[in-house]
Design brief:
Largest sheet: 9 strands, mixed
CATH architecture of the largest domain: Alpha-Beta Complex
Number of domains: 3
CATH superfamily of the largest domain: Spore Coat Polysaccharide Biosynthesis Protein SpsA, Chain A
Strand content: 15-25%
Length: 417
Amino acid sequence: MNAAPVSVVIVSRGRPGLLLRCLTGVGQLCYPAFEVIVVADPAGVTTVKNAAWADRTKLVGFDEANISAARNAGIVQASGEIVAFIDDDAVPEPTWLDHLVAPFTDPGVAATGGFVIGRNGISLQWGARGVDVFGRKIALDHADDAPFEPVLPEGFVTKTEGTNFAVRRDTLATLGGFDPAFRFFLDETDFNMRLAADGGRTLLVPRAIVHHGFAASTRRAGDRAPTDLTEIGASSAVFLRKHAPDADMPGELARIKADQRRALLRYMVDGGLEPRDIARRLSELESGFGEGLQRPLAPLPKLAPPKASFQPQPQPSAVRPSTHVAGRPWQRRRLNAQASAAVARGEIVTVFRFSPTALPHRVRFHEGGWWEQRGGLFGRAVRDGPPFRFQSFGTRVTREWQRVARLRHCGRNDTNS
């Protein structure tokens, strides 16, 4: 069976370096039939034009702080049967798109959502979740890593994450894409609600993995501490107006403020905020909520058909092997040279760099194009693992490779270096 054509849409604003890293990761996807659409501000456009991606993307200039409108601009350029979304500060595992798209062989599936790995590159940031008309989210149980359609409590719908989900293009167009009234926050959740109301089925796919680092932006610092809650307040009010119009708005504002206050206090304890910042952020939230109660809402017109033909990414002419190399911290230069050479040969590369300590592990996607896991030989990788485990270097490398190999194996070949 031929692979369904997929359009991958990436919106970028103010983060050209991370956009390039995201594109490097997207360029290593195993999926055989996808195009890339970048919707970016001037700095992002310049970065793409100056990089090897200049002739490999549909590039859309967009200099407005509105992620919903930006995504809609990308959808209009999308010629794939399915449209997948990832943020500029995220990187997909090579098998991400294969897993995310697989459930669409069932014509009754309208959308899929994957899981998101957080800042340490190992622990889950967002898994299976549901959401109700008040924007309240709950975690959902699932038995294994097979795609599944959640069984939800009454009043809840399946939630997907903005940095890791896919939708049939026809469905997106019919529902009008994303509502520009959500300039940031709850934009994809609003779409989840509208899709469910229209009878669309959403499946969650645990093995469709992206790594999301929560990069700094105009609304948050590098440690995730918020620097402005105005738009979160505004989007919260818009969401309630659309999906719970009879709600007690003052009561809902009080609930949202209480939730945000708890989060702000955690950031203050961790040193990311000062005590005076708490009142400022809550004042911004309240001001934004009031603005959101007045923000114009309009029916969403059906999106236009694609403006251009499908522009697939070039596929490697030979089998792409998945390779790993391993060594000690003092061998970093040699390991990086090996990894760089393997990437240049078209291989998917993982570097393991373990010190003789019990330091916890971290994973990142190196800007050079390889995955890098570092930490102590005896330290913990997964959150529920033992804090100390005595083992040989070779045993640890084998164990860690077994944990990640299936995510970086394109199903054709596998080698060791």
